[in-house]
Every structure is written in structure tokens, then in C-alpha cells.
Amino acid sequence: MTINIQYVNMLTSEAMNAYVTDKLEKLGKKYDWVISAQVHFEVINDPKGKGKICKMELSLPGPRIFATSNEENYESAVKETIKDLEKQLKKRKHQFSSH
User: Fold this and answer.
1) 0.85 exceeded by pTM
2) DSSP letter for each residue of 41-91
3) How far apart are alpha carbons 82 and 10 in whole angstroms?
4) Structural domains in the chain?
5) Mean pLDDT calculated for residue range 75-88
């Protein structure tokens, strides 16, 4: 799986790159038909205290799947986004196996 990580309006982080790559590699081993992942990290001014946004788009056979989350830190944003993607991947896997 190819992983492309982009940082919008913020500095790049090697630790974050490693964290995301590790999480996506695990997902890629579980669902070996995932082709690539696009990851976007963004920071916005949020009066509620959140504002750390993680967006992920997975390329796979059929339509792409997308998830995003807005959390207080990037680690929890990544966890939430991957949780959402995994739900979508389970549904897609179920569709594949029914044919």
C-alpha cells in the first residue's frame, strides 16, 4: 500500500508520519486489497478546544472510502479516523464476499 501524508498550515512531523504509517500498515495487512492511502493533517482555530483534523482517503477496488475527524490531538484524530475507515472496510469486505 502506498501512503501519502500531507500537512496543511503546519510543520511536518516524523513521529506522526511513523505513527500513521504503522496504523495504516496494520490496516493494509488486514485488508490486502487496499491500494493506497491519502492522509491530510490540518489545524484550525476552534473555540471548543479541538481543531486537530485528520482526513484519510483509501483507494481500493470500487469507490474510494473517506473518513475525517476533529479531535484535541492528532493521535486521537488518527485513531478515530481509522476506526471509521475500518467500519467502511468491513462493509466493503462483506459486499466482496457475497458475490
Assistant:
1) yes
2) EEE---TTS--EEEEEEEE-SSS-EEEEEEESSHHHHHHHHHHHHHHHHHH
3) 21
4) 2-97 (3.30.160.100)
5) 95
